[in-house]
């Protein structure tokens, strides 16, 4: 029967030969995603963040992975993604090394925790600039490289790192993350708009929405919220996120397996936001 025929199933999750750019790729979820792309067969993964030393250290760790394809490598391209000038510097560095990009992971992000009455305008603006405006500038500037080899059968991919805080209520109170939560809601909706705009150009745009993953960015909030062990016990799956949870979704969205997924926002939180039958986001 025709339904049993799956075209070239062995390559369904392969990224063999692909070129990727990962912003915020020097640590945390960005570094995990970059590792997944390389180990799934990507040929070149450009690692970007503001600090050159951090990019170099991340690339050294990635290039030392034992199961990479011959010639596969991570390349350091430091830049400040919060400004259009910084995004254009990143584009110039990538364009000097390749004439196309297959995967763009917009992962760079910032947060700020402060009580509502004291929440500074400058902090709110900084978070919105990087988490929303920076993503829009990044996708717009890289669109020509993404279109270069894009096709109906093999579209290029944009993946935005959002958060479950953009789907429900984020952290309130003494360490309220108002700008972060608002920015993640905004960037998810931006992703939906870009999905429809860029789909005809052969580019899919999707968002991932992680819950609690122990990272440098979230560790302070984890501690303030009762600690990793208590939060893990409260999760429907009785644990917090692991690197493999991010890696699997990234490979799915950027491989042939995810070629017809466009405009999605995928929660990766073990179902925590749905427990007790209501949105219950504390991130």
UniProtKB/TrEMBL annotation:
Alphabetic keyword roster: NADP, Oxidoreductase
Keyword check for Oxidoreductase: yes
GO molecular function: oxidoreductase activity
InterPro entries for the chain: NAD(P)-bd_dom_sf, Sc_DH/Rdtase_CS, SDR_fam, Sec_Metab_Biosynth_SDR
Pfam families: adh_short_C2
SUPFAM superfamilies xref list: NAD(P)-binding Rossmann-fold domains
Family indicated by similarity: Belongs to the short-chain dehydrogenases/reductases (SDR) family.
Protein known as: Uncharacterized protein
Stored PROSITE patterns: ADH_SHORT
Highest taxon above the source species: Eukaryota
Organism: Thermothelomyces thermophilus (strain ATCC 42464 / BCRC 31852 / DSM 1799)
